[in-house]
């Protein structure tokens, strides 16, 4: 009788292990199917690997140029602020994306990379990782860009927890 009980216990353990393996396999198949579906949906993008979703918010404009910030890229630290800043020149059908680093102690900023897009198609036409010179943002008399100070204020005051839809444009737009 003890031998039968042991055999039944072993058989029950085998059944549980098989069910566990089958359920894990089903989960893996579901994950692969979901990933395949996502990849198929992304097939319409020319270069899905390089494409990124941006969430640009309008900051200000000057002389026909609109200034926007991708709020998903804002990083505020004690002595520095970084963000992707977009400058749209619709007259020239051009949009510039600059990786900007603000040095708060020196009241300056620098572009760390530049992407240039054809505005109407959002196609990347040029890319450079050559950093720019360092610019000041506080003294307009020296030819510095006061708009970049507004961009900095926007980055420092932006709070993703609150609905900031007032300045929101191109939510979820895909760029190369």
Describe this structure in words.
The chain folds into two domains: 43 residues; 124 residues, Beta Barrel (Lipocalin). The chain contains two helices and nine strands, in the order αββββββββαβ. Strands 2, 3, 4, 5, 6, 7 and 8 form a seven-stranded antiparallel sheet that branches. Strands 1-9 form a two-stranded antiparallel sheet. By secondary structure, it is α+β, with helices and mostly antiparallel strands.
Features:
176 residues; alpha+beta; Lipocalin; seven-stranded antiparallel β-sheet; two-stranded antiparallel ribbon; 2 helices; 36% strand; elongated
Architecture blueprint of SSEs:
Layout lengths: L1 H40 L10 E3 L1 E7 L2 E12 L3 E10 L4 E10 L4 E11 L4 E6 L6 E2 L9 H12 L15 E3 L1
Antiparallel strand pairs: 1-9, 2-3, 3-4, 4-5, 5-6, 6-7, 6-8
Counting DSSP E segments of at least 2 residues, the number of strands comes to 9
Give the DSSP E fraction (strand runs of 2 or more residues): 35-45%
Low-confidence runs of at least 5 consecutive residues: 25-50
Task: Let me know the largest β-sheet.
Answer: 7 strands, antiparallel
Radius of gyration based on Cα positions: 26 Å
**What is the terminal-to-terminal distance?**
71 Å
H/E element sequence: HEEEEEEEEHE
Mean pLDDT: 76
Shape field = elongated
What is the assembly state of the chains in this entry? Answer: single chain
Structural class: alpha+beta
Number of separate helices: 2
CATH class of the largest domain: Mainly Beta
CATH architecture of the largest domain: Beta Barrel
How many domains in all? 2
Can you tell me the CATH topology of the largest domain?
A: Lipocalin
Helix content: 25-40%
